Amino acid sequence: ENVAAVVRDGGTILLLSACLDGIGDDRFLKIAKSLSHSGEITGDGNESLIMGIHKVRRTIALAKRVDLVLCSKLDSLLLDHLPITARTNVQAAIDEVVAKYGDNCRIAVVLDAGSQVLYHHAA
Predict the structure, then answer these.
(1) In degrees rounded to 5, what are phi and psi of residue 67?
(2) pTM of the predicted model, to two decimals?
């Protein structure tokens, strides 16, 4: 989310994270699984899923503007209910993005997206 402001519409955010410890708290995935395509909770309306729903909704909204790709060691089935494409090979994922946009595409490398925010100053 911290890099979203500098990615053009139709661009790609490629997140490289081994996720060796898995996904952590599984609330995010439970919420994603319970949401309809409109972003509303389906099923029994489980109130315990309300806390944190904003994160899932922001991910869904971002994916309507840009492609989201996660290159990790996670089982790709975990992402079934999210608009995120799973990849396991870093170089292949990078090559795929470069092939999509061409050799002159602009790439920003952010080493710690949790503590860095990219800003685009329009000239």
Answers:
(1) -85, 135
(2) 0.81
Q: Are 3 and 13 in contact (CB under 8 A)?
A: yes
Is residue 70 within 8 A of residue 76, CB to CB? The reply is no
- Cα–Cα distance measured from residue 55 to residue 3, given in angstroms and rounded to the nearest whole number: 15
Residue 43 has a pLDDT of: 52
Distance CA(94)–CA(110), nearest Å, equals 14
Report in angstroms the alpha-carbon separations of 66 from 22, 32, 47, 73, 74.
25, 18, 30, 22, 21
Query: Are residues 50 and 62 in contact, defined by beta-carbon separation less than 8 angstroms?
Result: no
Tokens matching residue 112: 């710690």
